[in-house]
Amino acid sequence: MAVIEGDGIGPEVISSTVKVINAVKGIYRLPIELEFVEAGLNAYKKYGTNLPKHSQNKLADSNCVLKGPTTSLEGFGTELGVPVKIRKSFNLYANIRPFKPLPRVNNVARLDAIIVRENTEGSYSGFEYMISDQVALGIRLATRSAAEKIFKIAFNMAKNRRKKVTLAHKANVLKATDGLYKEVFLQEAKKYPDVTAEESHIDALAGWLILKPESYDVIVAENLYGDIISDEAAALVGGLGLISSANVGDNYAMFEPVHGSAPDIAGKGIANPIAAIMSFKMMLEWMGYPEAANCVEAAVIKTLNEGKNLTPDLGGTGKTADIENEIILNLSK
Ligand code: NAD
Question: Burial, 212: exposed, middle or buried (Cβ in 10 Å; 0-12, 13-18, 19+)?
Answer without folding.
Answer: exposed
